[in-house]
Write a structure and sequence with these properties.
globular; 17% strand; Spore Coat Polysaccharide Biosynthesis Protein SpsA, Chain A; alpha+beta; six-stranded mixed β-sheet
C-alpha cells in the first residue's frame, strides 16, 4: 500500500486496513514530490523514469503528479526484483508470486473484508482464465455506468468483471508479474500513471471489477466537490506548490 506518511489521515487509514489484512499488506512510503520536488525531478529525469515534456507540461504546476507516478513505478520495481519468477533448483520448477494488489492510501474497504470468503472470491477470480494481466478493483464514480454496460467476462455473487474502458484512478488494482515486467523494462512514463495504463491496457487485456469490497475515499478529479463523502481530499489537486 502506497502511503503518504506526512498525512495523518492517510496513515491512520493504512493502520486501519493493516489491522484487517494483517500479513497480507505492507507499507510503501509514497514519494514526496510536494516537499522535495527538485530532488525527485532530477532523480526521475536522470534515471529515465519520466520525460522532460511531462515535467514541463504537467508536473511543474502539479508536483504531486510526479510523486504519484514515481510511487507506483518504484513499488513495481521493488515487487519485480523481489518476487519475479525464478527457477527453484530444489523443487525443479519456476516459483514466484504471479499477482499483486496495489492500493493507494485513500482506498476504502467495506467491513472486515480479509476473510476466507474474500480470499476465496479472489482465488476464484484469478483462476478463471480471463487472460487478463490487470484487474482494476476500485472504479471511480464517473465510470461505473459506462463500465457496467460492457459485456461481462466474469460474474460471481460479489464480483463482476468487464473489459476495462479507458478511465482514471489507481486506487486499487491487481496486476500480474508479466505486466509489471513490461513496465519495469520500459521504464520511462511520459504521462499520468493511470493514462499510461489506459495506453497499454489493450496489450494485457485489462479488466475492471465491480465488487463489494473497495471504494475510493479521496477526490477523484479536479472538480470533485463532494467533501462530505470524500474525506481524504487530494494531494494532487488541492496541493499544487504548497509544502506540507
Amino acid at each position: 500500500m502506497i502511503v503518504f506518511e506526512k498525512d495523518e489521515t492517510r496513515n491512520n487509514n493504512y493502520t486501519h486496513i493493516m489491522n484487517i489484512m494483517g500479513k497480507h499488506i505492507f507499507k510503501f512510503p509514497a514519494i514526496d514530490t510536494i516537499n522535495n520536488y527538485d530532488y525527485w525531478k532530477s532523480f526521475a529525469l536522470d534515471n529515465k523514469y519520466t520525460t522532460q515534456k511531462y515535467i514541463d507540461e504537467i508536473c511543474d504546476d502539479n508536483k504531486g503528479k510526479l510523486g504519484c507516478n514515481l510511487s507506483h513505478q518504484l513499488l513495481l520495481n521493488y515487487i519485480y526484483e523481489n518476487h519475479k519468477p525464478h527457477m527453484d533448483s530444489i523443487k525443479g520448477k519456476e516459483i514466484g508470486q504471479q499477482w499483486h494488489m496495489i492500493m493507494e492510501d485513500d482506498v476504502g474497504i467495506k467491513g472486515d473484508i480479509w476473510t476466507e470468503e474474500f480470499e476465496e472470491q479472489i482465488n476464484k477470480l484469478l483462476a478463471a482464465n480471463l487472460n487478463t494481466k490487470y484487474i482494476q478493483m476500485c472504479i471511480y464514480d464517473n465510470f461505473i455506468i459506462p463500465q457496467s454496460v460492457k459485456a461481462k467476462v466474469y460474474s460471481d455473487t460479489k464480483m463482476i468483471v468487464y473489459p476495462r474502458i479507458p478511465q482514471f484512478g489507481t486506487c486499487c488494482y491487481l496486476i500480474h508479474i508479466d505486466m509489471i515486467k513490461y513496465i519495469v523494462e520500459q521504464k520511462t512514463i511520459g504521462d499520468n500513471i493511470d493514462f499510461y495504463y489506459n495506453t497499454i491496457g489493450g496489450m494485457f487485456e485489462a479488466t475492471a471489477c465491480m465488487n463489494n469490497y473497495f471504494i475510493s475515499r479521496g477526490y477523484e478529479d479536479r472538480s470533485d466537490a463532494r467533501n462530505d463523502k470524500k474525506k481524504f481530499g487530494s494531494l494532487i489537486w488541492n496541493v499544487k506548490n504548497e509544502k506540507l
